[in-house]
Every structure is written in structure tokens, then in C-alpha cells.
Amino acid sequence: MREPKLHEALDSLSFLVGTWRGTGRGHYPTIKDFTYEEETRFWHTGRPFLFYMQRTWAPHSGDAMHTEMGYWRPKAEGNIEAVLSHSFGIVEIDEGKIEGRKISLESTSLTSTPTAETVEALARVFEESDDVLTYELRMAFGENELQPHLGAELKRVTGRD
Amino acid sequence: MREPKLHEALDSLSFLVGTWRGTGRGHYPTIKDFTYEEETRFWHTGRPFLFYMQRTWAPHSGDAMHTEMGYWRPKAEGNIEAVLSHSFGIVEIDEGKIEGRKISLESTSLTSTPTAETVEALARVFEESDDVLTYELRMAFGENELQPHLGAELKRVTGRD
Fold first, then answer.
1. Most buried residue, A21, A136, A159, B82, by most Cβ within 10 Å?
2. Which CATH number do you get for residue B59?
3. Which residue in B1, B83, B95, B110 has the most chain A C-beta atoms within 10 A of its own C-beta, making it the best mutation to test that interface?
4. What pLDDT, on the 0 to 100 scale, is given for residue A141?
5. CB contact under 8 A, B63 and A73
6. What pTM does this model have?
7. What 3-state DSSP class applies to B114?
């Protein structure tokens, strides 16, 4: 396949394209605090959506932890939708907003496989500045209201190619 | 990250790990018949699920067509679950069976973003023999009952590494 041109619908998200790596930390009432290493990639094939893949691993052992992937679909007037699947057995639909280099996504649907845990809600805010991408993720799980769960700071390791 | 060992839960799916390429054809009452080129990859990070990514493109122009990705989660007694997202704006939960080198997956949940079309049901059967992977996908869409939509024959282009 030839190298595709970025679709104009992705102009507002072009700053995301590439590979990002860094460190995050997690906390939640039901678990011990933890840290993780992360790689997140955004890429495209010339169509009006971004491919998104995130994976995390334990800082010392290198053992794989979480992974999620899917597609980010920018729409008119700064709106955005995302369709995601998570390795632990849930799928997610998000709606949100693109405001400059800040993107917010809030789940409108989370569905679990029969063996997976149920997550009530997820909300993410991504911000990019000077080739640093940070995000904060809030989660509602079980009886726990939507509250901070994950945050990470990632640095660009490859550009749009 | 070090090279992970295949998780024992993936033993029954280890024959899938690698990259597969080939040609498919599509038909449905609502559209013209078409053909496509496809690449499908299965990989792992040492945990008890396979990463799955499929993308297709037009045979002559090379223009990207469909793509879907997610995780295949084998369970006890030959059962399997999958969590998938599709670029056109749906997420999918499947349940199915692993029977030797035949894997069947049937959707139990399909959810669309506000701007995406609704798909009523998807059912896939994959079979592998002598480094050839074939699948047939049936779809129920609109008023149309579950019926053949896609089929492809893919050859192994890389192995488990």
C-alpha cells in the first residue's frame, strides 16, 4: 500500500499521530496504588479516523498490564466519537470534544463479556503541549462514583511517519 | 520489553499467531458485489488473550476499506469471547467455540456511535489448514436476516515471531 495522505477530517487531530511513551500512576478505592509504563500509538490509513492503541507494562518486570485499542472518529464542530475494546473484556463507545490540543471523551456505552467485570463509566481528558501528551482517566466502578483512576505523561518518540 | 512466552490459555489458538494476507469477496442484498485485499494479524504479550487486527483495501487503488481490531479471549472448555471495535463506528462482543482449527464467533452485543449505521448481528467462522486461514462472515443488517456477507482466504506471511 502507498503512503496515504492524512484525511482532512483528521486535521484537528494530526498532532496526535505518532508513538508516545512514558509513565503513569493508578489509584482507586478498591486497589493499591500502582505505577506503569505506557506506549500509545495513533496512526491512520488515509481515512477519516485515527487508529489508537495503548498498552502498559509493569515498570520492573516488564510484564504486560492493560491494553486497549480502537478508532477515534472526529466529527463536525469539534465533536468526536471513539469505539474501543479493552483486553479485560469490555467494549466502549465514547463521545467528546476536540478543543485545540485538548480532547475529552466520555463513555456513553460500556458492555462486558460474560466473564469480565462491569465498568459503570469512563471519562478521559488528553492534552498535548510541546510533544508531551498527558491524560487523566476517571472511572466509576461498582459503588464508586466517577473519580480519578489513571494519569500519565507521555513523550513523543516518533512523529507522523 | 522482553519477548513474552505464550500464555498456556492460548495453546489452543497458537496456530493463529502471525500475519496473514489474501483476498476476499463481499456481497449483500443492499450493495454491489466487491473484492478486497486483506491483512489480518494475531499477536500476544504473554497474557491470556490474543490481539487481533484486520484491515482491508481496494485491489487496484490500494485505498483503505474496512478495519476492525480487538482481543480474543479463550476460556475453559473450548469457549471463547471476543471484544472488537470497527472503524465505521460499532463495538462488538462475541461468544463462540474453539474446535480444533475451527473457531466460531457470534455477536451477543453490537453497539453503534450516534453517526454510525446499526448492525443487527455478525457471525464468523474461521478455519485454518496448512498455513491457509479462511473465514466466512454472515451479517444481519436492516431488514435482512443473517446471511453471507464476506469470505476470504489468507495465507501465512509471518510465523509466531
1. B82
2. 2.40.128.20
3. B83
4. 97
5. no
6. 0.96
7. coil
- Give chain B's mean pLDDT: 96
Does residue A130 form part of some domain? yes
Q: Containing domain of residue A96, as a range? A: 8-156
Cβ-based neighbours of B130, under 8 Å, separated by 6 or more = none
pLDDT band at A123; cut points 50, 70, 90: very high
Cell triple for A15: 498532532
The interface predicted TM-score (ipTM) is 0.96
The half-sphere exposure of B47 on its side-chain side, counting CA atoms within 13 A, is 20
Alpha-carbon torsion (A12, A13, A16, A18), positive or negative: negative
Residue B161 lies in a domain: no
Q: Are B45 and A67 in contact (CB under 8 A)?
A: yes
Q: Would the CB atoms of B113 and A2 count as touching at under 8 Å?
A: no
Q: Which of B55, B81, B90 sits opposite A89 (nearest CB)?
A: B81
Total domains, chain B: 1
What residues 30-59 of chain A have any CB closer than 8 A to a CB of chain B?
A: 45-47, 49, 51, 53, 55, 57
Which of the 8 DSSP states describes residue B131?
A: T
